[in-house]
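Tutorial handout. Part one gives the primary structure; part two gives the three-dimensional structure as tokens.
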Amino acid sequence: MGAANDYLGFRMKKTKIKVNSLKGRGVFADEIIRKNVEIETCHLIVINLAEVGRFLEGYVFDYGPRKVALALGNGSLYNHSNEPNAICYMDRKNKVLSFEALKMIKKGEEISINYGYSKADREKFHII
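Part two.
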């Protein structure tokens, strides 16, 4: 297993933020990440939906009735893919979001998740 950094009691695989010409900023692997390995666990800031402006609405996760969560760390920068190489799990009790590799991710490869948005949401947020 590759080197990892300790972050507030959680381990995080080495990643970096780079610009994807089609999607904007994204999270990229800075080392090989093996299938089923945790990539990152992010603390969440829970926000009332009414307080989220247009700028932040594309960076938050649904958290329940009239609530959303902003993920710290790299959490709100993972881009969407219809064929993702990672998945995320929310732990509402501990207010964290964990990202895990669905398959081996090569060094330099963008790490993506499936947002599960409807076609209308994808058009609204310009998600490809």
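Part three, for discussion. The radius of gyration is 14 Å. Residues 119-124 form the longest helix (6 residues).
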